[in-house]
Automatic annotation (TrEMBL), chains A, B:
BP terms from Gene Ontology: response to amino acid
Residue ranges occupied by any HTH asnC-type domain in the UniProt entry: 3-64
Gene Ontology cellular component list: cytosol
Xref: Gene3D superfamilies: 3.30.70.920, Winged helix-like DNA-binding domain superfamily/Winged helix DNA-binding domain
Matching PANTHER family: LEUCINE-RESPONSIVE REGULATORY PROTEIN, TRANSCRIPTIONAL REGULATOR AZLB
GO molecular function, one term: sequence-specific DNA binding
Protein name: Lrp/AsnC family transcriptional regulator
Keyword Transcription regulation among UniProt keywords: yes
Keyword field: DNA-binding, Transcription, Transcription regulation
DNA sequence: CCCACGACTGGGCAGATTGTCCAATGATTC
DNA sequence: GAATCATTGGACAATCTGCCCAGTCGTGGG
């Protein structure tokens, strides 16, 4: 659960320049290569680092519109079947169950506003979804990031 | 803007097993190594692949609570100064300006519900923020993903 | 119909990196 | 003090990377 400063620096370094290898990391951080490897193994084992997958920019794929859609779900049946069906829609990038007046919140992307309507229709068609409400993301002044959190956790 | 099937398979392969190198990719996909390298270079140049940074799990760092906070912002001054200040809060993982009754939506994490109150207070204290409303993510049946989108785009 | 162009292939090369061991040295805990 | 754990610095073979090249193939233009 805790991360020390070396871990934080290591993660930040990898985040800044993912292409550098373990050896280069050890040089930059002025520690032995084995230490870096051990740290990375431990971080991965603890689940802090879940992977190194390529980061994809949906807008570069033509999906320029991002929206957040909240759903109200019919009580009978629960969220699970709805979530399962939402998962089948590629444009649904993530889905959460939430507190408050609505039941789920999902982030969707689309190629245009008109295309967003198509995606929303797909969602509305999901069995158990009663109604939806959506807001469009106009701008993203703070894109998804975890580095500040890592630095804070490594204090 | 378009991606062909080989690109999609390549990205999916890398997403599934990020540790394998270019050479191994070429073997798996039954193409020449140079092709894989060229494809990856192009995808990166086109902005489709923005990086290979380590994926961090906030909950593994002790940030078990995720919430979505919507903000109403004082008109004078606009969003920019608010976004700048939000960016200084490590627990704010992302922030968007949005359509609808509210002005911004941000995703925040905290160590506990009590800690979430602290984070929200930080947000409320930001100059220009008039009021906030938050919902807590109880479960995340569909975690953030882009692979289905990539596969769909590579059709 | 032919040609140029871009993409892919298959190969080779030197240099760097990886995975994996090891013994020795702190640092911390009991 | 004794044991434990992390780190260091070094070694090794095997592998991979970055880079280059010549030849082939398919498409679109001339």
């Amino acid at each position: 659960m805790t991360i020390d400063q070396l871990d934080a620096r290591l993660i930040s370094l990898l985040a800044a320049e993912p292409r550098i290898g373990v050896l280069e990391c050890s040089r930059r951080l002025a520690v032995a290569r084995g230490t870096v490897q051990a740290r990375l193994d431990r971080l991965a084992a603890r689940g802090v680092i879940t992977g190194y997958g390529p980061d994809i920019d949906p807008s570069a794929l033509g999906y320029d519109v991002t929206a957040f859609v909240t759903l109200q779900i019919r009580q009978v049946g629960g969220h699970v079947p709805v979530a399962d069906r939402l998962a089948l829609i590629p444009e649904v990038l993530e889905a959460h169950t939430i507190t408050g007046g609505d039941d789920m919140l999902c982030r969707v992307v689309a190629r245009s506003n008109a295309d967003l309507q198509r995606v929303i229709d797909l969602i509305v068609d999901v069995q158990g979804v009663m109604r939806t409400s959506s807001v469009i993301a106009l701008d993203t002044p703070v894109p998804y990031r975890t580095m500040p959190l890592v630095s804070a956790a490594g204090a």
